[in-house]
């Protein structure tokens, strides 16, 4: 089967550049649409010009949009809505992967404030996509390893502690950690897969379903010593959040939902990426953490 031509909108981003690499590695003719102000104006497309966006999406079969998950009601939603309008008019796009790649938005109807803002925004895009009848796949990716596993799930840290670590609540709640390159590889796999059409595909590699304490133990084993552990109660978490700026509060809300509430793992899933695509050799967190030694 001929591989879909893939357009990546946001291909310069943290996840976006990995999607571009994975798409090329999988043999998809791959195009990147980026803001004209950063360099070449691909096909003279401007995000604000409906006509040129339509012309661009007509040249491809699938669109992936890993644009910023900014923590403010901002430009990213209008941009995706413009993209949806363009795809609707073009009428040729066989698969759209909007900017999801995290907690399953549809399950976050009662998310805490102000975290709910980003879920509400992503839901607005879902409604537009489904209303326009564009075939979609929503990728629910768990915790990006670089953001979460690297810092042993300590808010504000991206490198693992060497002496003491803050444990979120009991530390026993199961989360999911995924190497961002694996997120990209799985996402690209879904593009031409009819089993993923109009579905949410969950990335839940079984060996990477771990609690914070399990992750810490893996690290302790690698460094050959125990860390001191302090527990942060849920009340302390919310008290600390009050003094933080808005964007940080949005991010901290995610720690609450993932590590206290268990929102990534407290339900069964049907379409799971490592089962659908066993040929993707996903990275185990023991191997991931070795880069910090
Ligand atoms: N599960 C997790 O743990 C986790 C963690 C982080 C992110 N995510 C999700 O992953 C997705 C991608 O996030 P990311 O961190 O990779 O984003 P990012 O690094 O901030 O990437 C941003 C991309 O979006 C583009 N962009 C932003 N605003 C734009 C605008 N107004 N017009 C055009 N392009 C714009 C940027 O273009 P420029 O280069 O021109 O700025 C860049 O290519 C989001 O849905 C996010 O929620 C999940």
Automatic annotation (TrEMBL):
Matching entries from SUPFAM superfamilies are given as: NAD(P)-binding Rossmann-fold domains
In its UniProt record, a GO molecular function of this protein is: pinoresinol reductase activity
Provide an example Pfam family for this protein: NmrA
Name all NmrA-like domain ranges: 2-289
- Alphabetical keyword list: NADP, Oxidoreductase
GO biological process assignments: lignan biosynthetic process
Q: Which family does it belong to?
A: Belongs to the NmrA-type oxidoreductase family. Isoflavone reductase subfamily.
Name of this protein: NmrA-like domain-containing protein
Q: Which organism is it from?
A: Spirodela intermedia
């Amino acid at each position: 089967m001929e591989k879909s031509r893939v357009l990546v909108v946001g291909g310069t981003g943290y996840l976006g550049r990995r999607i571009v690499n994975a798409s090329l590695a999988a043999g998809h003719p791959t195009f990147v649409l980026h803001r004209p102000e950063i360099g070449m104006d691909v096909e003279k497309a401007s995000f604000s010009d409906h006509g040129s966006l339509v012309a661009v999406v007509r040249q491809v079969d699938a669109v992936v949009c890993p644009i910023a998950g900014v923590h403010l009601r901002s430009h990213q939603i209008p941009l995706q809505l413009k993209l949806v309008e363009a795809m609707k008019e073009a009428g040729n796009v066989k698969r759209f992967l909007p900017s999801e790649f995290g907690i399953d938005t549809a399950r976050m109807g009662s998310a805490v404030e102000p975290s709910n803002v980003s879920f509400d925004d992503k839901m607005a895009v879902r409604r537009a996509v489904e209303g326009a009848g564009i075939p979609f796949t929503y990728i629910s990716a768990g915790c990006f390893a670089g953001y979460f596993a690297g810092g042993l799930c300590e808010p504000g840290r991206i490198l693992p502690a060497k002496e003491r670590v803050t444990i979120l609540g009991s530390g026993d709640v199961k989360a999911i950690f995924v190497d961002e390159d694996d997120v990209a590889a799985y996402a690209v796999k879904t593009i031409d897969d009819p089993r993923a059409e109009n579905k949410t595909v969950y990335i839940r590699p079984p060996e990477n379903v771990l609690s914070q304490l399990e992750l810490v133990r893996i690290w302790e084993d690698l460094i050959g010593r125990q860390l001191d552990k302090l527990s942060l109660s849920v009340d302390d978490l919310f008290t600390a959040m009050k003094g933080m700026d808005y964007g940080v509060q949005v991010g901290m809300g995610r720690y609450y939902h993932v590590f206290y509430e268990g929102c990534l793992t407290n339900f069964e899933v049907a379409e799971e990426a490592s089962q659908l695509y066993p040929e993707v050799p996903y990275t185990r967190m023991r191997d991931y953490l070795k880069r910090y030694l």
